[in-house]
Amino acid sequence: MYIYETADSAYYDLLRAYADYNKQHPTEAESIIWEYLKSKQTGHKFRQQHIIKDYIVDFVCLHHKLVIEIDGQYHLEANQIVKDKSRTENLQALGYHIIRFSNEEVIANPNAVIKKIKLALMEIITPKKNQKESQSPLSLEGVRGRLGDEIRADAWAVDAACSGNPGPMEYQAIDLQTGYRVFHFGPMKGTNNIGEFLAIVHALALCWNQGLHNKTIYSDSYNAILWVNKRHCKTKLERNEQTEQLFQIIERAERWLQTHDFHNPIIKWETAKWGEVPADFGRK
Fold first, then answer.
1. Which of 177, 236, 174, 178 is nearest to 199 (CA)?
2. I want to staple 269 with a disulfide (CB 3.0 to 4.6 A). Which of 41, 86, 185, 218 is the partner?
């Protein structure tokens, strides 16, 4: 019997909705690899779009803890490379081995990719001695040291980023005490305001699930804080076939707000006074 790491239950259904969407809309490269993996030609069982903690991985063999990621052009952007590195480090800290392939690599030479997957499995099954994986926190550049007691220590900072309006949207949270990323979600088509709103709700739900009822949450979005306080995401984004999955996630978030009496302080991050919020994606 294996222990399967999954997301915290408070927000699992939101991640599940996104994972289901990815399953229904795979890229050409993902379809090629899944046809091979689901037939168990490797001799091992793989799962598709599986949730591990606060991440959704493309494919994973849970028994041997091998994660396979298929990357599109989006992953070549400088900021995405940094994000992927942090994601990889966090998964490695949980004991997972990660191998990545580009869409072009899979489509051009799938047999070579499959050989690399088999080799990765063999290396895990027959592990090398003294292999150690490490995890490094994201640097906060001494933000609390610079501002002193003005910033609360027991706090998370959240932020969202969106390429376009609407466009690919994602959000994350950073622990101000450790500098580690607490969670990350996306990308999914949406708007920056929606991402900011969902980031706060995600943080609240995670705090509730972990009994962190006094932890402060910082956000630099006045609108998102207002929407959370009113328990309603007042977006003007059109609900259509492309955004339906996102609206289902928004509805789940609103239901969570309406059914939980949370007391976590939600404080506006004063960018003009303190600089960029520590969860900022650095795309300005």
1. 174
2. 218
Cβ–Cβ under 8 Å, residues 160 and 192: yes
Give residue 70's identity as a one-letter amino acid code. Answer: I
Written as six digits, the tokens of 219 are 């956000």
- Collapse the DSSP code of 27 into the 3-class scheme (helix H, G, I; strand E, B; otherwise coil) and give the result: coil
Integer CA distances (angstroms), 277 to 85, 183, 192, 217, 263, in order: 20, 16, 15, 11, 22
Show pLDDT as tens, one digit a residue, over the chain (284 residues): 233 344 555 567 777 888 888 889 899 999 999 999 988 777 889 999 998 877 889 999 988 889 999 987 544 344 444 455 777 777 887 788 899 999 899 999 999 999 999 988 888 877 543 333 334 454 454 455 555 567 888 899 999 998 888 888 899 999 888 888 888 887 888 999 999 999 999 999 999 988 999 999 999 999 999 999 999 999 999 999 888 888 999 999 999 999 999 999 999 999 888 888 999 987 55
What's this model's pTM, rounded to 2 decimal places?
0.55
What letter represents residue 64's amino acid? H
Locus of tokens 């900021």 = 79
Yes or no: say if 86 and 138 are a contact pair by the CB < 8 Å rule: yes
